[in-house]
Amino acid sequence: MKHFILMSDVIGSGQKNQALLMQNFKETVSKINHDYENSLLSPLTITLGDEFQGLTKDLETALNIIIALEEQIIIQGFDFQLRYVLIYGDIETNINKRIAYEMLGEGLRDARYKLNSMKSNSQRFHIQIEDINLDSLLNNTFLIFENIIDKWNPEKDYDLISAFIKFKDYKIVAEKINKTRSQIWKREKTLNISSYEATKTILKSISKLPHALRL
């Protein structure tokens, strides 16, 4: 039976403080598992130290989780990036609802192969859900998404971006962080916050298209 398989790994994990990375990575994954407990067929499970895999109930959940993971890293000020593969593929064994172990299937093999192949380039997102048009829409939108967020600096930008994620309106953000509206308006433009929010809206809208719901 086919399911939405989400796999991810930490980019360049070997170059980071291992103890701190694992603490931050586990905290991030745990938060998402808690927030999406009722929408996961099998929870995000850390498998090889710096990787996780899980199964979601639908495409909408999978996309929301990817966005949530990225925003959680920003909000917590963590200095690592994730690489993602989302595949709609076969699971040939029973679904393990407690932990994403002891499951086999062509979909899992394909997801693992693609995740490993992405390590030779700078690609961070790959979607393959057996619909050419939806795949193209999602992969191109994630390319724009990636081009925006990968320009943000964890030390210089994450606190402000976290405020934008929470409060949206630059006037409210300015008040909350005790800066002038003019300063925050300029930073909003420089950081491409409106484009970031637009790509999120597009991704969420794609997942609600009639064809997407029939997968």
Give a verbal description of the structure:
The protein has 215 residues and is of the alpha+beta class. The protein is 53% helix and 16% strand. The protein has helices at 18-35, 59-76, 106-117, 132-149, 154-167, 170-176, 181-190, 193-206, 210-213, and strands at residues 2-10, 40-46, 51-56, 82-90, 125-128. Helix 3 links the parallel strand 4 and strand 5 (125-128). Helix 2 (59-76) crosses helix 5 and helix 6 (170-176) crosses helix 7 (181-190). The protein is globular. The mean pLDDT is 93.
Alpha-carbon distance between the termini?
A: 12 Å
Low-confidence stretches: none
Cα-atom Rg, whole angstroms?
18 Å
- Write down the overall mean pLDDT: 93
How many H/I helical runs?
A: 9
Structural class: alpha+beta
In one word, what is the shape? globular
Order of helices and strands: EHEEHEHEHHHHHH
> What is the oligomer described by this structure?
single chain
As laid out across the biggest beta sheet, the strand order is: 2-3-1-4-5
Largest sheet: 5 strands, mixed
The number of strands is 5
User: What level of helicity do the residues show?
Assistant: 40-55%
Q: Provide the β-strand percentage band.
A: 15-25%
